[in-house]
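In keeping with the milestone schedule agreed at the kick-off meeting, the structural modelling team has produced records for the first pair of proteins. Each record is given below as a sequence line and a structure-token line. The laboratory manager (R.T.) confirmed that both were archived under the project's standard naming scheme.
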Amino acid sequence: MKDTIYLIGFMGAGKSTVARSLEQSCGRKAVEMDECIEEQERMTIPRIFEEKGEEYFRELETGLLKSLSNEKNLVVSCGGGTPLRSCNVEIMKRSGRVIFLTAAPETVYERVKNSHHRPLLEKNKNLAFIEALMEERKERYEAAADYLVSTDGRGAEEICREILERIAEERP
């Protein structure tokens, strides 16, 4: 049954905020993939990248997705790189709906500029780098998504309503 909602998108697109809002509004359990991995590994994402490498981290993401796909009624906030692996997209599509939360590069920059928890942006917190990386990932995100939902200038409740309405529309 496809009842899990997977939120994908670039860092700072609003995945965590929307996941928490969906948890409150419709009783789904919110799962923050990065937090789960940090708990499992007993280290931060930046430290995992530094000590074990990005590929190791990506394997952890795939393993976590596999285990989450066996649960029901979740809303999963995926790491920004999760949909870049086709095996991850297959897992998400098989067990749920994939929502691509979009945001303008300027919005992303404003949301992440004071964060030190994003290893890929840590030494590249500027609009040009964010735009380039977003453009590089855009096609993969769009291919993975069942729906695209913009987060620019919108509150979490409004975004949640749109997500739930779009999912409800597909049911007979």
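The second protein of the pair:
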Amino acid sequence: MKPRRLVIFDCDGTLVDSQRTIIGAMNRTFDGLNFPRPSEDAIRRVVGLSLSESMARLLPEGSAGDHGRLIEGYRSAFLEMRSAPDYEEPLYPGVIEALAHIEGGGMLAGVATGKSLRGLEATLRHHGIHDRFVTLQTADRNPGKPHPAMVRRAVAEAGAEPGTTTVVGDTTYDMEMARAAGTYAVGVSWGYHPVDELRAVGAHAVIDRFQDLAEVLTALLDGR
């Protein structure tokens, strides 16, 4: 049987604009444990990594116990913010249309994210798009980005192959993960890492809007 074509999306910074919640939860967590707040730029730089790797980078002088407390504090702060009346994590423009194009073209969609499975499913269900993905890969069930394990597992679950798979993400970790797994790597310009950095680590293309994804997929997968 011919391998299926699979498009694997990152979540935060690619599908969902979660910057306000992530930075707010980090600030609450570091304040609550009396650690110095990392800068907003430092927080943006670790989005996409597992929480353990993120905390190690944000508090490099901290102990394993410190990092564990930060992880638990962040999870609690994030859930608290998500439950607030003013909670808002909108989809980026064009997400629904891009998913419809993928489905209409007989392709499959998946997600590979540094979030936990619980957090990812909550986000996708909040936006009514959970059932549009055939595979969900998270950092609590796989090695974190940029390790290629999440992509390899998604490819296997979807019945695809690396050569018929494209990873779409906003960070260098996404691009490195895709290249390490032997798939195509497409960056988005609206996320957390600059476009020149995405290209430098091997992005095959970078899009400025989701409306451009269909053309890029055709060019990569069909060689046009």
